[in-house]
Design brief:
single chain, alpha/beta, TIM Barrel, 35% helix, rSAM_sf, S-adenosyl-L-methionine, PFL1_activating
């Protein structure tokens, strides 16, 4: 079989916030959403930088003792990883053969067939939900979320899911937003862990470097109090959450 390549943005060999343990994190290039709060808009365009499956596996072999000792493995993120399902599936397939734990980090805005290609070789999923209300979701991301929610349901039927939600003050942290989030979580067929990510403005420089106007100008960073408020609202629905320190 000919060597497969993926378009990528960057690699982190000792990631600690994208799945359990210490992880090799591959950030693929290209995204199907245009989130107003994205702190990595430089990952939206596919570009020309590529990496081979062989190179990824060689990297993993180099650091494997650290991943194994910590219960870690590989996470493929983005951009949107599922825009390159064949590449992701082949990396994960080879990792499965080598008993390396695999985690998919996705926003789920992809055809169902892309999930079908990757899920058989996936051990866990980090699934990012931007908003449950369809109107707010379209305003925040430029895209409808019906396909995303359907894909989340499909994933939760078969795999452990960590649901990631970015707390944006005045935008995604109102009672109506959190009530809708809780109802959606309770409708899922499987158990999910909930991680809250505080919104920050660190990515504003990248927007400027790309010649783009920052679209949430004036929205403050989420504070620990903002996170605690959302935790409390979810607790009213008997949903416990994790406070994830990596900001969204």
């Amino acid at each position: 079989m000919s060597q497969q390549y993926g378009y990528y943005h960057s690699v982190e060999t000792f990631g600690t916030v994208d799945g359990r343990g210490i992880r090799y994190v591959l950030f693929l290039a290209g995204c199907s959403l245009g989130c107003k709060f994205c702190h990595n808009p430089d990952t939206w365009v596919r570009g020309e930088k590529t990496i081979s499956v062989e190179a990824v596996m060689a990297d993993i072999r180099k650091y494997r003792r650290y991943y194994e000792a910590s219960g870690g493995g590989i996470t493929i993120s983005g951009g949107e990883a599922l825009l390159q399902p064949d590449f992701v599936a082949e990396v994960f397939r080879q990792c499965r053969e080598k008993k390396v734990h695999t985690t998919l980090d996705t926003a789920g805005n992809c055809p169902e067939e892309s999930l079908d290609r990757v899920l058989p070789y996936t051990d866990a999923v980090l699934f990012s939900i931007k908003a449950v209300d369809p109107v707010k979701h379209r305003w925040l991301t430029g895209s409808d979320n019906s396909k995303i929610l359907a894909n989340l349901k499909k994933v939760s039927e078969v795999l452990p899911v960590a649901l990631r939600y970015v707390v944006i003050p005045g935008i995604t942290n109102g009672r109506d937003d959190i009530d809708a989030l809780a109802a959606m979580i309770k409708s899922l067929p499987g158990q999910v862990a909930v991680e809250l990510l505080p919104y920050h403005t660190f990515g504003r420089k990248k927007w400027a470097q790309l010649g783009k106007a920052y679209l949430l100008e004036g929205v403050p960073d989420a504070t620990p109090q903002d996170i605690a408020k959302v935790q409390a609202l979810l607790k009213e629905h008997d949903i416990d959450v994790l406070y994830e320190t990596k900001a969204g």
